[in-house]
């Protein structure tokens, strides 16, 4: 018996050992390195920097959190970021639903595959390139102005437009998957019972695909909460939570405060995930 | 479906309009890269390949391209190994904490990029005392690329079941031979698809890269961000942006053709 054969025979008799070997490297990498880094970041949020030396002082305090809650600027930015996230989510849901509905219910199987690829592929085109392209289009002599005779310019509206554009495919795909699973017979039954299209939509389609919409909203929400580049490119003077984090780690060299601010989107996401768990949205991801 | 013709056409119009909006910005970037007008107003005024030539000779761009390729290839290689191991473990075994492990794999991409970015930045610099460089960026990229390889391999493993492997073992092949001659050939296209997607993800990533790449180094997206607000660089920025679109969407298109099973879930 060769060595290879006896090794593989030995491993075959020890499934736990095989599992251990398979899991060891990914767990070391993600569990120790990545989770460790996240935990360390969370701990850092309770430290502060020395104002003279710029060094991190490892003393526990809640000062950073106090600043975050007390300072009007941060409250405004948090509310603005949340507002943008809600607006982006609603806009994406409204645009994505008819698109996904046609894809799932009217397109032929072949057309469906093509359409999914057509929606998916630009999703991977560089985030930065897409944001940049909206800067070009929204500029004074850009495409939008040429088409409509006016442009919203750079500001909150441009931020909402660009982010809605960026995350739209993340909303289309879960809704498409949800509608694909919705049996046609239910829609037909509603029609047979005299339900007009709007009534069928409100009483049958919408409740059954709600978890899929929520699944999509998890992406649009989470991605918007952490964004800082789009608002830098098209947002004019506005700032989002991500900008505060970025500026504190870069220009201000205040890593502890950056860590504190970074907990805000994480906490919002955790609360949101806990709230939507009951809808079954998490099984739709 | 019992819906009226009118509803159908309204929905179709919505779909066509939506797809148009999805593609317009990409087309604008591609057109601007050959637009002879340097302010890139609309409509384009003329055709030129001058910017492409200038970009091809721009040293900063070329260096950034090399860095992007190095980071992407290295991160993809690590992600292929780790993602495949994790996929086998989670798909073929039951064990305590399985759900937590699968959550752990999607976490680097589910959390906002800035959180992942500063967590790794902090870990490298203050905890481990490692200077930021290409290596740290590769580690960071591999961390969020694992999930795409994992998803592709898991989907394939789920679809192929275990029958052929059992047959191979029954016929006397040992585990290694079975893997080499039966399992791996069936996984190959899933691995290739996962690898292509991982590479595309790494090639485009900007936020985590900003926080983990050493000072003075640039990947292509970072080069764009650094030059975005310099008016005299606009033509070259347009070319790099156009390259990024092509370089990142082609592998994704190929990956989707290769594996019917990645079509469902966005980047997850």
From TrEMBL, chain A:
It is a multi-pass membrane protein. Keywords: Cell membrane, Membrane, Transmembrane, Transmembrane helix, Transport. Residues 78-276 form the ABC transmembrane type-1 domain. Pfam families: BPD_transp_1. It comes from Amycolatopsis viridis. It comes from the Bacteria. The keyword Metal-binding does not apply. The chain crosses the membrane at residues 21-47, 82-102, 114-134, 154-179, 200-221, 255-275. It is found in: Cell membrane. This is Spermidine/putrescine transport system permease protein. Belongs to the binding-protein-dependent transport system permease family. CysTW subfamily. Gene3D superfamilies: MetI-like. The keyword Transmembrane applies. InterPro entries: MetI-like, MetI-like_sf.
Automatic annotation (TrEMBL), chain B:
It is found in: Cell membrane. The keyword Transmembrane applies. The chain crosses the membrane at residues 9-31, 71-90, 102-120, 132-154, 190-216, 236-255. It is a multi-pass membrane protein. The keyword Membrane applies. Keywords: Cell membrane, Membrane, Transmembrane, Transmembrane helix, Transport. Residues 65-255 form the ABC transmembrane type-1 domain. It holds the Pfam family BPD_transp_1. It comes from the Bacteria. PANTHER family: PUTRESCINE TRANSPORT SYSTEM PERMEASE PROTEIN POTI. Belongs to the binding-protein-dependent transport system permease family. CysTW subfamily. This is Spermidine/putrescine transport system permease protein. It comes from Amycolatopsis viridis.
